[in-house]
Design goal:
- The chain is an alpha/beta fold.
- It folds into 2 domains: about 5-215, Spore Coat Polysaccharide Biosynthesis Protein SpsA, Chain A, CATH 3.90.550.10; about 230-320, no CATH class.
- The chain contains 13 helices and 9 strands.
- Strands 1, 2, 3, 4, 5, 6, 7, 8 and 9 form a 9-stranded mixed β-sheet that branches.
- It is globular.
């Protein structure tokens, strides 16, 4: 039945799902048109003994991997991606995708994404989504508009601010392999979709397909829910009244991105100016550091990307605090 259809790997993370929602998602994945789906389901936690969940996954012909001890989102998707890349059919797979357990995919989500991926030559394609309430009512026809997404092009764009939602993304095999190596190496809280977006931007480009091909169900169980972009005044008020917490959070953001960039630089060459912004390009003076962040901030403001400009300001503060600390330039893996 699937003869001649391009094979695509789908990695599904499962953790204490609502059975009805999981069934809808599985039906939507199995029902994808014009592609052959290789489904890898990773059960994260103690649902291994839940016969109903395993039965649903078996009906969907999923290859099931069980993590008895909870790994968390990024590591769960990493294990699923590892299994998909090691699958006997991996040499023929055209692309890799992430799937959440309680969304619903439109029937041509994969085929349209694959066409865009291969026609554009991008390393990653991600689509839009409709935002649904827990009961299924449409809250917004565009998740990107709802959140005020600022689309990015460069590695710095994606490093600073993730605009790729995992369940909308499709990765080339090269991107999937690099993303897995990065996820294995870092210990931060950066999620799988952010890591994948940075991997794609480092080796090629990230393409946004302006079609809502996923119904994203938002509820209290979501790890990361959709939220409108914060206003400038509210953000500044929080900074002024809680300066200590603000600077501590900025330092954590800087550390996470620096760790990812260091891991990436061990895999491939990274532009000197980006490396220097995160103190990975040799000795960097304070004036040079300020100049790099200021140039990036004004570039983002000219494009109307205020969120990235604000992140630049936060990261500059954290970078200056670390500027006099000794650091080593990571060696590139040959």
């Amino acid at each position: 039945m699937s003869r001649g259809k391009p094979p695509i790997a789908v990695v599904l993370a499962v953790h204490q799902p609502d059975p009805a929602h999981l069934r809808e998602q599985l039906d939507s994945i199995v029902g994808q048109e014009d592609v052959k789906v290789n489904l890898h389901a990773v059960i994260d936690g103690d649902e291994a003994g839940d016969a109903a969940i395993r039965a649903m996954l078996a009906v969907a012909k999923a290859q099931i991997l069980v993590n008895p001890a909870r790994l968390g989102i990024r590591r769960t998707f990493a294990e699923g991606l590892r299994a998909a890349l090691a699958d006997s059919e991996a040499p023929t797979l055209r692309a890799y995708c992430f799937a959440d357990q309680d969304d619903i995919w439109q029937p041509r989500k994969l085929s349209l994404s694959l066409a865009e991926l291969e026609c554009s030559g991008a390393s990653l394609v991600h689509c839009d989504a409709r935002l649904l309430a827990a009961g299924g009512q449409v809250v917004d026809s565009s998740l990107h508009r709802h959140e005020g997404r600022e689309e990015g092009n460069s590695l710095l764009d994606h490093l600073l601010l993730n605009t790729v939602t995992g369940m909308t993304a499709m990765l080339t095999p090269q991107t999937a392999r690099l993303a897995l190596r990065l996820m294995d190496e870092i210990g931060s809280v950066m999620l799988h979709d952010h890591v994948a977006a940075c991997a794609a931007a480092a080796i090629g480009s990230v393409r946004h397909l302006d079609l809502a091909l996923v119904d994203y169900r938002q509820h209290e169980g979501n790890y990361m829910g959709a939220a409108p972009a914060p206003g400038w005044i509210r953000a500044q008020r929080g900074w002024l009244t809680q300066i200590g917490a603000y600077r501590q959070a900025s330092a954590a953001i800087f550390a996470d991105r620096r760790e990812l960039l260091a891991a990436l630089s061990r895999q491939m060459a990274v532009a000197d100016d980006v490396a220097q912004m995160f103190l990975l390009g040799g000795e960097v003076g304070r004036s040079r550091l300020i100049g790099l962040y200021a140039a990036a901030m004004f570039r983002f403001l000219r494009k109307g990307q205020r969120r990235r400009a604000r992140i630049c300001l936060r990261l500059l503060d954290a970078a200056l605090a670390h500027a006099n600390r000794p650091h080593r330039v990571p060696q590139r893996i040959r």
